[in-house]
């Protein structure tokens, strides 16, 4: 499983589906080695608020006294993905599974009266370019497109309603890049997205 190598302050990580932001990297008194001090999106998940013993190592955005934890950099993290990969991974698979569960083959005696071509159905359903409502809540999305992906507009140009809450964006600029590609976008939901760097890059 992926390890959070080259850790940095503000890094967004997911551990077993629980999202967090790195607030501290370094030693902790009374222990050996390096730790990551993280603030959980679920502010009741942790064990402290960035203070351990008499030492404050970092502060959290949340006022919850249990918003933070220390984790080892070697702890396996969930893999992040691009917006484009998340679209394909969710909607192609879900659509095929839903339609295949509804398929019925009619029999006369022991011979099928009609057989459905599964490959044809898969081709018909694997059309993310026709989606108008997209929900990628908690999909571990970190960027708009990865190397080798098609662009957002090429992949799904008709999206009008989009939910990308609870993901791994580190900069608001990544959200802007996605939205700029969607000419039909009318509604955007960003619940619980803890963006660590509030700046938009001009390319």
TrEMBL record:
<protein>
    <submittedName>
        <fullName>Tubulin-specific chaperone E</fullName>
    </submittedName>
</protein>
<dbReference type="InterPro" id="IPR036859">
    <property type="entry name" value="CAP-Gly_dom_sf"/>
</dbReference>
<feature type="domain" description="CAP-Gly">
    <location>
        <begin position="26"/>
        <end position="72"/>
    </location>
</feature>
<dbReference type="Pfam" id="PF01302">
    <property type="entry name" value="CAP_GLY"/>
</dbReference>
<dbReference type="InterPro" id="IPR000938">
    <property type="entry name" value="CAP-Gly_domain"/>
</dbReference>
């Amino acid at each position: 499983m992926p390890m959070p190598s080259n850790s940095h302050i503000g890094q967004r990580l997911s551990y077993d589906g629980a999202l967090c932001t790195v607030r501290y990297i370094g030693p902790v008194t009374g222990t050996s080695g390096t730790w990551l001090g993280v603030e959980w999106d679920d502010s009741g998940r942790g064990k402290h608020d960035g203070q351990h013993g008499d030492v404050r190592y970092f502060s959290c955005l949340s006022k919850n006294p249990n918003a933070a934890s220390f984790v080892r950099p070697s702890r396996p993290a969930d893999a992040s993905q691009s917006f484009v990969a998340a679209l394909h991974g969710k909607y192609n698979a879900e659509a095929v599974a839903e339609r295949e569960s509804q398929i019925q083959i009619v029999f006369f005696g022991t011979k099928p009266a009609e057989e459905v071509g599964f490959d044809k159905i898969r081709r018909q359903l694997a059309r993310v370019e026709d989606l108008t409502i997209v929900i990628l809540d908690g999909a571990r999305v970190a960027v708009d497109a990865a190397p080798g992906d098609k662009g957002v507009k090429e992949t799904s140009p008709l999206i009008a309603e989009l939910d990308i809450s609870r993901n791994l964006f580190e900069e608001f600029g990544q959200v802007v890049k996605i939205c700029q590609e969607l000419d039909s976008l009318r509604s955007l939901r960003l619940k619980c997205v803890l963006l660590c760097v509030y700046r938009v890059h001009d390319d």
